Amino acid sequence: MISQEMNDSLTRVGPGSDAGEVLRRYWQPAALLDELEQGRPVVPVRLLGEDLVLFRDSEGELGLIGRHCPHRGADMCFGRLEDNGLRCPFHGWHFDRNGQCVEQPGEPEGSRMHEKIKSVSYPVVEKNGIVWAYMGPGEPPAFPNFDCFRAPSSHVFAFKGLWKCNWLQALEVGIDPAHASFLHRFLQDEDSADSYGKQFRDTAADSGIPITKVLRDYPRPDISVDETDYGLRLTALRHLDNGQTHVRVTNQIFPEAISIPMSREMIITQWHVPIDDENCYWYSMFTSYTDPVDKDLMRQQRLKEHRLPDYAPLKDASNNYGYDAAEQATETYTGMGLDINVHDQWAVESLGAIQDRTQEHLGKTDIAIIRYRRMLRAAIAAVKEGRYQDLPMQKGLDLTTLFGPVSNDAIAKDGDWSKATAVADAARRAACPWDATV
Ligand code: FES
Ligand SMILES: [Fe+2]
């Protein structure tokens, strides 16, 4: 349980807010590349409580500028994409990709007023299906050499989904290894042959045991948390009756991402990105260590559950997340279908728009949540005191030397679980068609 003041400090994201100023010192997912490729490349972006517009100019370069025109505030999302920039339809003021006003066609001939007019603008880069924005001061940091950035684009599929709640509770479900035994429990095992592109459907490495069965039969994991250069490494051990140990290694990448195994073939790296204080997007990069990802299939699977253009899930509070009491009795723990994203969405949205953490009671299995909040508090203090070099991944570390992070499920036959994880990961990397050495 924490105070209301601390809860506000950890959750609020607007300009000048405690957590918001930390988040602004890291690249943030702003849009999927898919969004720019459907129709006209002008996309509204609301990020960290700021309203922006992302567009591609005629030189093929991206600009991320203020959504409201600096003249009288009209919505630039309806702008005319012309003359290598975006022109406001209200009085024709024209802006380039850096937000500079380059023309005011209604002002007197020879006027130089436009030279002093600049919209907000943030640097953006594209990486493996996602457009990233840097909204902080100074030079943006480098990208770490994580698998999701390093794999060729053929091996990474990116998607996103809207959750109507604060970003921190969304992140906290990802660093809570205990919930999978309950929230995502399937009362029967599905055929793992039909597992492509889905989570928790594969069998644990070398065991033939469906992950669903391990999670269901062993609900009390031993969880340990280690601090790393990028954030936290979580190890969840489930000691099986036959003397073997199931090891699940997941990661928190500071400030708001997680990296988790999806199947033996793929991992998911997922950012929980604040739209504003009460809404967030998850952006996932599914990275394959074997074949190229079947992007059409994975997109189709997910578009069946989401509506465009805002990527809002079709199941939500308005239709009780598809809750079915009969299904809950016989098939799933939640009664909300087989898509585990819906389970997580219900879990995080049902906590309220911003979880009231003055009323919570954390247990031993919440250790990673406790450690993460401590890290975020330390980062907030560092930013307030100007000790920027104390922030994770900004300590003067060469980020190109940051690999992985290792995220996998493994079975230790003899109790040496750290070796089992390392062996399973090394085998996967050795067979990988792109350079996945760590
Ligand atoms: S409001 Fe945009 S040009 Fe006037
Ligand atoms: Fe989950």
Task: Please give a quick description of this structure.
Residues 27-133 form the Rieske domain. By secondary structure, the protein is of the alpha+beta class. It is 22% helix and 25% strand.
Report on this model:
The protein is of the alpha+beta class and 438 residues long. It is built from 11 helices and 21 strands. The protein has helices at 4-11, 18-23, 33-37, 147-150, 167-174, 211-217, 295-303, 325-330, 340-349, 367-384, 417-430; strands at residues 28-32, 42-47, 50-56, 62-66, 80-82, 85-87, 94-95, 101-103, 121-122, 124-127, 130-133, 156-163, 222-227, 231-239, 245-253, 257-261, 266-276, 279-288, 306-307, 312-313, 408-412. The strands form 5 sheets. Strands 12, 13, 14, 15, 16, 17, 18 and 21 form an 8-stranded antiparallel beta sheet that branches. It has a 4-stranded antiparallel beta sheet with strand order 2-3-4-9, with no helix packed on it. A 4-stranded antiparallel beta sheet has the order 5-6-7-8, with no helix packed on it. The longest helix has 18 residues, at 367-384.
